[in-house]
Amino acid sequence: MPLDQAIQCVHDPLLVILSYVVSVLGSFTALQLAIAIPGSTGAARWRAITAAGIAMGGGAIWAMHFIAMLACRMNVEVTYDLPVTLGSAVIAVVSCMAGLAIAGSGVFNWGKLIVGGVLMGLGVTGMHYAGMAAMVMPADTVYNSSLLVASGAIAVVASIVALWLAFNLRGWGQMLGSALVMGVAVCGMHYTGMLAASFIPDKSAAAAGGVSGGYLGVGIFVVTTALLAAVLTISLLRQRQRAMVRI
């Protein structure tokens, strides 16, 4: 069937806004948590890497992605295969942890930054397209190869920038500004990837099973925001306690 007969995706403005907000909050939280990585060793270092990786991969990237996926309204039933969806979240978290571990090891330099950023960016791209593959619907997904490559390039550049920011910025003002920019970059990658996709009707591929629901996107936003806020609060309290001990 020609691409001009593809099913149209109309984005819900509320969920688009919420996807950006959760990406900014996740980025800010990850930047705060990453402060502890360079100065830590052993188990403490891996705890910091894990916490920052979950905030970035799970909050700033995956939660943003899934909320934005749910923002895509089509005139066919769409559900999401749960194991594949959860698998895409694992890809995002593991790739962010790997990038943070590589870029944050030893003395910071551009070589480690680029290797970590490329690895993290490829993981983010894999997460996005695994999440797209989780869509269960009476349609086939066809990709524009140029836009697909562009989305991957955006992910790699955004990851390199994120890692540089994580290990070179301090101070609330700088981190908040950086988180706002990171939110734009993460959303830019996602919506470029969505633009690359065309959904061609296929009645033989009936939508069945999976998770869906009109309030699922808002629910994920509320839960993710609450978790990120709790983690951020605990992190800031610990930083204050450490500062008081030094005094």
From TrEMBL:
Positions of the MHYT domain: 11-200
GO cellular component: membrane
InterPro entries in the record: MHYT_dom
Transmembrane segments annotated in the record for this chain: 14-37, 49-70, 82-102, 114-135, 147-167, 179-200, 212-237
Keyword set includes Secreted: no
Pfam families named among the record's database cross-references: MHYT
PROSITE patterns assigned to the protein according to its UniProt record, in alphabetical order: MHYT
Keywords, comma-separated and alphabetical: Membrane, Transmembrane, Transmembrane helix
Name by which UniProt lists this protein: Integral membrane sensor protein
